[in-house]
Amino acid sequence: MGTLFTARMMNRLLQLRLHKRCLPPLAAANLASLAHLDASRPAGKYAYTVVDLETTGLDFRKDRIVSIGAVKLIDERIHLGRMFNQLVNPGRHMPAQAITIHGIVPSMLASAPSGMDTLDGFLDFLGSDILVAHPAWFDVAFLNRLMQARYGFRLQNLTIDNRLLCERLLLTKMLPALPRKPGLLGNDAADPERHRKQPDLEKIAHQLGIRIYQRHSAVGDALATAMILQRCLAKLTQTGRGRLRDLIRSGTV
User: One digit per residue, pLDDT tens: the chain, 253 residues?
Assistant: First the structure.
């Protein structure tokens, strides 16, 4: 299981490796994104950025992002006035299979910024928030590919896998257990092939009585994920496990 202590140790090693580099302000800020976290504080008192991506395919090594959607959850409330919603030009062919899923056609992306040009805007929106995705392995892998190419390191925000939270807190009878793999706070938390066999976001939302606004739009799926996260945070509090350390224990491997 990932711990905040482990994440800080890895972050400290990264800072030592990069200490001679003059990092741009957004990169430097991301490098310090764990500094304000206290595992003993209530998890609901922190700010969360819930993100979802639409892509050209499922392989982060060769596929590209075509849309980034994110919403803020602060003090357990979703802030609808603070959303990040950006189409991204992948710079390559859009497979027909991907279009049938998210409905984004090449003409919609012709004037959109590239992934690299979009990254800084997303980092500015993200700040030092706890990052949440459903499932985290997919979205974070694509974002880290951009981070590595632009700044030479991965996102340093604490990352929570909302899919794991659902499995462990809300839907224990519906979902089979995920395999455990060594990982750090959501990175490479489980085998992608196994994840694809799990009930998807739509089925989980339906089970919880949550309606998804524009399914397979990045911002619509991010909003649904944020509503599911609200349920998870409330469940932790109801069971007397509402500290940040409890959230990390339930939402990471």
Answer: 468 999 999 999 999 999 999 999 999 999 999 999 999 999 999 999 999 999 999 999 999 999 999 999 999 999 999 999 999 999 999 999 999 999 999 999 999 999 999 999 999 999 999 999 999 999 999 999 999 999 999 999 999 999 999 889 987 655 555 444 444 343 443 344 444 456 678 778 777 878 777 777 899 999 999 999 999 999 999 999 999 999 999 999 6
- Pull the structure tokens for residue 43: 């998890």
Give the closest residue to 191 by CA, choosing from 203, 180, 177.
Answer: 180
Identify the residue whose tokens are 């990045």: 218
Structural domain including 11 reads 1-170+199-251
Query: Is residue 218 situated within a structural domain?
Result: yes
Tokens standing for residue 172: 């224990």
Bridge-partner residues for 53, per DSSP?
68
In sequence order, the 6+-apart residues with CB closer than 8 A to the CB of 106 are: 94
Q: Give domain status of residue 189, yes or no.
A: no
Give the other-Cβ count within 10 Å of 18's Cβ. Answer: 16
* Contact present, 232 and 43 (Cβ < 8 Å): no
The domain that holds 31 is classified in CATH as 3.30.420.10
What is the model's pTM? 0.88
Q: How many structural domains is the chain composed of?
A: 1
Q: With contact defined as beta carbons under 8 Å apart, do 86 and 235 qualify?
A: no
Q: What are phi and psi of 195, to 5 degrees?
A: -60, -40
